[in-house]
Amino acid sequence: MKILRPLWFIFLLLSCREKIIHPNQGDVIEAVYGLGIIKSENHYEAKAAILSSVKEFYVSEGEDVKKGAKLFLTDQGSIYYSPFAGKITDIPVPISQNLFPQTTILSLTDLNHLYLEVSLEQQGAMKLRTGLKAEISFEFFRNKKIWGEISTIYPKNDQFIAKVLVPEWPKGILPGMSADVAFEVARKKSVTLVPLKAIANGHLLIKRDGKKSKLKVELGLLDQEKAEILSPPLLSSDEIILP
Predict the structure, then answer these.
(1) DSSP notation for 93-109
(2) What predicted TM-score, i.e. pTM, was given to this entire model?
(3) CA-CA distances (angstroms) from residue 210 to 207, 216, 217, 241?
(4) Structural domains of the chain sorted by starting position, each given as residue range(s) with its CATH number in brackets
(5) Which long-range contacts (CB under 8 A, 24 or more apart) does 218-222 make?
(6) Taking Cα atoms as reference points, which of 192, 198, 171, 195 lies closest to residue 235?
Protein backbone atom coordinates (compact mmCIF):
# COMPACT_ATOMS: atom_id res chain seq x y z
CA MET A 1 0.00 0.00 0.00
CA LYS A 2 1.41 3.38 -1.03
CA ILE A 3 1.61 5.92 1.81
CA LEU A 4 1.01 9.54 0.82
CA ARG A 5 2.91 12.18 2.74
CA PRO A 6 1.15 15.48 3.55
CA LEU A 7 2.62 18.62 1.96
CA TRP A 8 3.73 20.06 5.30
CA PHE A 9 5.79 16.94 5.98
CA ILE A 10 7.53 17.14 2.58
CA PHE A 11 8.29 20.83 3.17
CA LEU A 12 9.77 19.98 6.58
CA LEU A 13 12.06 17.37 5.04
CA LEU A 14 13.26 19.80 2.38
CA SER A 15 13.90 22.59 4.91
CA CYS A 16 16.03 20.27 7.03
CA ARG A 17 18.47 19.53 4.23
CA GLU A 18 21.92 20.92 4.80
CA LYS A 19 23.08 23.62 2.42
CA ILE A 20 26.64 22.87 1.36
CA ILE A 21 29.19 25.22 -0.20
CA HIS A 22 32.90 24.95 -0.95
CA PRO A 23 35.69 27.45 -0.27
CA ASN A 24 36.89 29.25 -3.36
CA GLN A 25 39.79 31.41 -4.50
CA GLY A 26 39.11 35.03 -5.37
CA ASP A 27 39.77 38.70 -4.76
CA VAL A 28 38.52 40.61 -1.73
CA ILE A 29 38.30 44.35 -1.07
CA GLU A 30 37.75 45.60 2.47
CA ALA A 31 36.03 48.96 2.68
CA VAL A 32 34.61 51.29 5.29
CA TYR A 33 31.24 52.84 4.51
CA GLY A 34 29.66 56.05 5.78
CA LEU A 35 27.02 58.66 5.10
CA GLY A 36 28.31 62.06 4.05
CA ILE A 37 26.71 65.50 4.23
CA ILE A 38 27.88 68.37 2.00
CA LYS A 39 29.16 71.31 4.03
CA SER A 40 30.56 74.73 3.17
CA GLU A 41 34.01 75.83 4.27
CA ASN A 42 32.59 79.32 4.89
CA HIS A 43 29.27 79.93 6.60
CA TYR A 44 28.36 83.18 8.33
CA GLU A 45 25.45 84.01 10.60
CA ALA A 46 24.90 87.65 11.56
CA LYS A 47 23.34 87.84 15.03
CA ALA A 48 21.98 90.64 17.18
CA ALA A 49 24.43 91.76 19.85
CA ILE A 50 21.92 93.77 21.90
CA LEU A 51 18.17 94.33 21.92
CA SER A 52 17.64 95.98 18.52
CA SER A 53 15.87 95.74 15.16
CA VAL A 54 16.74 95.88 11.46
CA LYS A 55 16.00 99.22 9.82
CA GLU A 56 16.87 98.17 6.26
CA PHE A 57 18.04 95.08 4.33
CA TYR A 58 20.31 95.70 1.35
CA VAL A 59 20.07 92.07 0.11
CA SER A 60 17.44 89.37 -0.25
CA GLU A 61 17.34 85.56 0.14
CA GLY A 62 19.00 83.69 -2.74
CA GLU A 63 21.06 86.69 -3.81
CA ASP A 64 24.76 86.36 -4.62
CA VAL A 65 26.92 88.97 -2.89
CA LYS A 66 30.55 89.98 -3.12
CA LYS A 67 32.98 90.29 -0.22
CA GLY A 68 32.45 93.61 1.55
CA ALA A 69 28.89 94.09 0.25
CA LYS A 70 26.42 95.84 2.58
CA LEU A 71 23.97 93.40 4.16
CA PHE A 72 21.67 95.35 6.51
CA LEU A 73 21.35 98.42 8.73
CA THR A 74 20.22 98.27 12.39
CA ASP A 75 18.19 100.86 14.30
CA GLN A 76 21.42 101.58 16.20
CA GLY A 77 23.03 102.83 13.00
CA SER A 78 25.33 99.79 12.55
CA ILE A 79 25.87 98.47 9.04
CA TYR A 80 26.83 94.80 8.61
CA TYR A 81 29.08 93.80 5.67
CA SER A 82 29.68 90.47 3.94
CA PRO A 83 32.91 88.81 5.23
CA PHE A 84 33.26 86.76 2.01
CA ALA A 85 31.58 86.22 -1.35
CA GLY A 86 28.61 83.89 -1.21
CA LYS A 87 24.85 83.44 -1.37
CA ILE A 88 22.27 84.75 1.11
CA THR A 89 20.60 81.57 2.34
CA ASP A 90 18.31 82.87 5.09
CA ILE A 91 16.74 86.10 6.35
CA PRO A 92 14.45 84.85 9.11
CA VAL A 93 13.41 88.22 10.61
CA PRO A 94 11.39 91.14 9.18
CA ILE A 95 12.28 94.81 9.33
CA SER A 96 11.48 96.66 12.61
CA GLN A 97 10.91 93.47 14.65
CA ASN A 98 12.46 93.60 18.12
CA LEU A 99 15.42 91.23 18.21
CA PHE A 100 16.88 89.74 21.37
CA PRO A 101 20.65 89.14 21.70
CA GLN A 102 21.92 86.12 19.70
CA THR A 103 18.92 86.15 17.36
CA THR A 104 20.02 85.19 13.84
CA ILE A 105 19.34 88.03 11.42
CA LEU A 106 20.94 86.72 8.22
CA SER A 107 22.85 83.69 6.94
CA LEU A 108 25.50 83.71 4.22
CA THR A 109 27.04 80.57 2.65
CA ASP A 110 29.99 80.14 0.30
CA LEU A 111 28.86 77.63 -2.37
CA ASN A 112 32.22 77.51 -4.15
CA HIS A 113 34.25 75.87 -1.37
CA LEU A 114 32.54 72.67 -0.29
CA TYR A 115 33.61 69.50 1.49
CA LEU A 116 32.02 66.24 2.63
CA GLU A 117 31.52 65.47 6.30
CA VAL A 118 31.29 61.69 6.70
CA SER A 119 29.95 60.09 9.90
CA LEU A 120 31.70 56.84 10.84
CA GLU A 121 31.33 54.01 13.31
CA GLN A 122 34.16 53.64 15.83
CA GLN A 123 35.53 50.46 14.27
CA GLY A 124 35.51 51.99 10.80
CA ALA A 125 37.18 55.22 11.94
CA MET A 126 40.11 53.24 13.38
CA LYS A 127 40.85 51.76 9.94
CA LEU A 128 41.02 55.08 8.11
CA ARG A 129 43.88 57.54 7.68
CA THR A 130 44.44 60.91 6.04
CA GLY A 131 45.14 60.78 2.32
CA LEU A 132 42.91 57.73 1.78
CA LYS A 133 40.76 57.87 -1.37
CA ALA A 134 36.97 58.02 -1.10
CA GLU A 135 34.43 56.88 -3.67
CA ILE A 136 31.34 59.11 -3.47
CA SER A 137 27.94 58.37 -4.96
CA PHE A 138 24.76 60.41 -5.02
CA GLU A 139 21.34 58.90 -5.62
CA PHE A 140 20.86 61.16 -8.63
CA PHE A 141 24.40 60.44 -9.98
CA ARG A 142 24.47 56.64 -9.65
CA ASN A 143 26.33 56.09 -12.90
CA LYS A 144 28.97 58.71 -12.19
CA LYS A 145 31.93 58.04 -9.90
CA ILE A 146 33.16 60.98 -7.83
CA TRP A 147 36.47 60.69 -6.02
CA GLY A 148 37.75 62.56 -3.01
CA GLU A 149 40.44 62.28 -0.35
CA ILE A 150 40.42 62.32 3.45
CA SER A 151 42.02 65.52 4.72
CA THR A 152 41.46 64.89 8.45
CA ILE A 153 39.69 62.58 10.92
CA TYR A 154 38.36 63.95 14.20
CA PRO A 155 35.74 63.45 16.96
CA LYS A 156 32.65 65.66 17.00
CA ASN A 157 29.86 65.46 19.59
CA ASP A 158 30.75 61.83 20.43
CA GLN A 159 30.80 60.94 16.72
CA PHE A 160 33.72 60.20 14.43
CA ILE A 161 34.08 62.37 11.36
CA ALA A 162 36.16 62.12 8.20
CA LYS A 163 36.50 65.35 6.23
CA VAL A 164 36.70 64.58 2.52
CA LEU A 165 37.89 67.11 -0.05
CA VAL A 166 36.81 66.77 -3.68
CA PRO A 167 38.81 68.44 -6.49
CA GLU A 168 35.74 69.05 -8.64
CA TRP A 169 32.11 68.77 -7.61
CA PRO A 170 29.37 67.99 -10.16
CA LYS A 171 27.22 70.94 -11.12
CA GLY A 172 24.23 71.46 -8.85
CA ILE A 173 25.74 70.11 -5.61
CA LEU A 174 24.64 72.20 -2.61
CA PRO A 175 25.29 72.17 1.15
CA GLY A 176 22.95 69.83 3.00
CA MET A 177 22.86 67.17 0.27
CA SER A 178 23.78 63.62 1.32
CA ALA A 179 25.98 61.01 -0.34
CA ASP A 180 27.08 57.40 0.20
CA VAL A 181 30.84 57.10 0.73
CA ALA A 182 33.14 54.07 0.50
CA PHE A 183 36.79 54.08 1.64
CA GLU A 184 38.93 51.21 0.32
CA VAL A 185 41.25 50.23 3.16
CA ALA A 186 42.78 47.00 1.78
CA ARG A 187 42.73 44.67 -1.24
CA LYS A 188 44.01 41.13 -1.82
CA LYS A 189 43.99 38.82 -4.83
CA SER A 190 43.63 35.03 -5.07
CA VAL A 191 42.88 34.28 -1.42
CA THR A 192 40.68 31.62 0.19
CA LEU A 193 37.15 32.95 0.64
CA VAL A 194 33.96 31.78 2.33
CA PRO A 195 30.61 33.59 2.78
CA LEU A 196 30.28 35.60 5.97
CA LYS A 197 27.01 33.81 6.75
CA ALA A 198 28.96 30.55 7.07
CA ILE A 199 30.94 31.88 10.04
CA ALA A 200 29.43 31.66 13.52
CA ASN A 201 31.40 32.97 16.50
CA GLY A 202 34.67 32.57 14.61
CA HIS A 203 33.97 28.95 13.62
CA LEU A 204 33.06 27.03 10.47
CA LEU A 205 31.08 23.82 10.44
CA ILE A 206 32.75 21.63 7.81
CA LYS A 207 32.59 18.08 6.51
CA ARG A 208 35.93 16.57 5.48
CA ASP A 209 36.32 12.93 4.42
CA GLY A 210 32.74 12.32 5.49
CA LYS A 211 33.30 13.60 9.03
CA LYS A 212 31.78 16.78 10.47
CA SER A 213 33.82 19.09 12.66
CA LYS A 214 33.67 22.58 14.10
CA LEU A 215 36.70 24.49 12.89
CA LYS A 216 38.02 27.66 14.50
CA VAL A 217 39.28 30.02 11.79
CA GLU A 218 41.46 33.13 11.65
CA LEU A 219 39.93 35.80 9.42
CA GLY A 220 41.69 38.28 7.18
CA LEU A 221 39.96 40.87 5.02
CA LEU A 222 36.18 41.15 5.01
CA ASP A 223 33.76 42.69 2.57
CA GLN A 224 29.98 42.85 2.82
CA GLU A 225 29.49 39.24 1.70
CA LYS A 226 32.65 37.18 2.14
CA ALA A 227 35.68 36.70 4.38
CA GLU A 228 39.28 35.73 3.79
CA ILE A 229 40.39 32.63 5.72
CA LEU A 230 44.00 32.93 6.90
CA SER A 231 44.19 29.67 8.85
CA PRO A 232 43.85 26.76 9.05
CA PRO A 233 44.18 25.89 5.35
CA LEU A 234 40.94 24.83 3.68
CA LEU A 235 40.71 22.29 0.88
CA SER A 236 38.64 22.86 -2.24
CA SER A 237 36.95 19.54 -1.44
CA ASP A 238 35.89 20.66 2.05
CA GLU A 239 32.14 20.93 2.44
CA ILE A 240 31.13 23.99 4.46
CA ILE A 241 27.72 23.62 6.08
CA LEU A 242 25.76 26.84 6.28
CA PRO A 243 24.04 27.40 9.64
Answers:
(1) S-TT--B-TT-EEEEEE
(2) 0.73
(3) 6, 19, 20, 12
(4) 18-29+188-241 (2.40.420.20), 31-39+112-187 (2.40.30.170), 43-109 (2.40.50.100)
(5) 220/28, 220/188, 220/191, 221/28, 221/29, 221/30, 221/186, 221/187, 221/188, 221/191, 222/28, 222/30, 222/196
(6) 192
Q: pLDDT tens across 212-228, in order?
A: 889 899 998 888 888 88
Q: What is the pLDDT of residues 55-90, one digit of tens each?
A: 999 999 999 999 999 999 999 999 999 999 999 999
